[in-house]
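Task: sequence design from structure.
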């Protein structure tokens, strides 16, 4: 029997906007990159380093907040992280020294970023069973929308008001929006007398399973499946966050005007919307392993294409292919963890996987910055991304179900 209106849809809507605001803000770093370089004369490695610190803080915080979400729920956690993220961007408007960049973006913004995936997607996984992949995909469409719109808005704000005022405006919106949407979040439908999906029974007519068939955190970390997923996430985050930080400077190095270069980044975000929604639905049909394999094959194809880009239209073609894989991978990972390990410690497990991912996100952008500073081009770095994507695919191909743990 279904309820007249299921509160889980409020969770989906709030998570959608949290993802859009948070990741949209994150994607503006590449837009501000050249502004910081021109204003202060800092090297690309130094500027990339602040994003690497932010990614490391994001990953470390994901373990802590994921564990807390399993215990106390999302509202307070998202409120605190929203305050840190908003203040970090607001105060970025006043920076004059590198240590301030690392403190405000690396630490404050990193804390703001650390909850967007682990909290929202872990909460979605508790509220939905039958359509878990689809609802995760809808939430991650918010990420794509933010990636598409916010960099363009940031570019307009920079042109109209300068980069300092642009940071002030973006930070104010981030602070208000994240805190407001956090108030709609609730940990578990059972806490308010509901069941996942708003149903009394699953599609097969059986009572909904509880978390009893889940692996504990200690049991999960003893499995090869868990460490294979961690290795895959580490590899793919090297690729993804390198592109986030460096694709706009790379496009501008090829003589593309700043507004068009930003459009390449926005195209990635826009196409990722399609990847998130499609792969969310596909995940419910073919499972997490096959969905991830599909995404990795597309990702590798995009990096091979990137080796041969020599004109704007080819960069946009890369953005289209890459954007689909980018969106799909981010959508499928949380349902895959639920599928293989259950929901009992989903937040802690997902947070740990994200932590290993953000180690890769920490390494990728700064290593790429150093490689550019040494060679004066991105060719070697982009070849390395292809190799890392292959490394990420291998453990996923060998994933096997864990005995006694089914998709809850």
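Answer:
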């Amino acid at each position: 029997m279904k309820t007249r209106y299921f509160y889980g849809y409020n969770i989906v809507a709030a998570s959608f906007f949290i993802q859009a605001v948070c990741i949209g803000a994150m994607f503006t770093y590449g837009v501000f990159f050249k502004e910081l370089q021109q204003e202060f004369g800092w090297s690309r490695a130094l500027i990339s380093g602040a994003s690497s610190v932010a990614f490391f803080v994001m990953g470390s915080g994901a373990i802590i907040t994921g564990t807390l979400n399993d215990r106390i729920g999302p509202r307070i956690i998202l409120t605190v992280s929203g305050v840190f993220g908003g203040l970090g961007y607001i105060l970025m408007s006043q920076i004059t020294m590198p240590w301030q960049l690392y403190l405000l973006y690396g630490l404050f913004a990193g804390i703001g970023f650390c909850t967007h995936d682990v909290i929202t997607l872990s909460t979605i996984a508790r509220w939905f069973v039958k359509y878990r992949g689809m609802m995760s995909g809808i939430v991650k469409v918010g990420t794509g929308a933010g990636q598409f719109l916010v960099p363009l808005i940031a570019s307009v704000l920079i042109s109209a008001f300068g980069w300092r005022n642009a940071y002030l405006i973006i930070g104010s919106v981030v602070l208000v929006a994240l805190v407001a949407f956090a108030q709609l979040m609730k940990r578990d439908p059972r806490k308010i007398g509901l069941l996942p999906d708003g149903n009394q029974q699953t599609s097969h007519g059986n009572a909904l399973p509880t978390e009893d068939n889940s692996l504990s955190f200690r049991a999960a970390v003893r499995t090869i499946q868990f460490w294979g997923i961690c290795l895959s996430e580490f590899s793919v985050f090297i690729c993804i966050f390198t592109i986030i930080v460096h694709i706009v400077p790379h496009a501008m190095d090829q003589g593309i005007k700043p507004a068009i270069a930003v459009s390449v980044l926005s195209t990635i975000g826009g196409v990722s919307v399609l990847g998130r929604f499609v792969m969310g639905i596909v995940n419910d049909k073919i499972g997490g392993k096959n969905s991830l394999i599909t995404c990795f094959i597309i990702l590798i194809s995009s990096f091979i294409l990137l080796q041969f880009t020599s004109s704007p239209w080819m960069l946009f073609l890369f953005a289209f292919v890459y954007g689909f894989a980018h969106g799909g991978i981010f959508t499928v990972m949380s349902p895959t963890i639920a599928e293989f390990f259950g929901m009992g410690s989903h937040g802690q497990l997902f947070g740990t996987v994200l932590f290993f991912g953000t180690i890769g996100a920490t390494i990728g952008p700064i290593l790429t910055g150093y490689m550019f500073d040494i060679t004066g081009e991105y060719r070697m770095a982009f070849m390395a991304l292809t190799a890392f994507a292959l490394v990420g695919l291998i453990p996923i191909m060998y994933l096997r179900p864990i005995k006694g743990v089914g998709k809850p």
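The radius of gyration is 20 Å.
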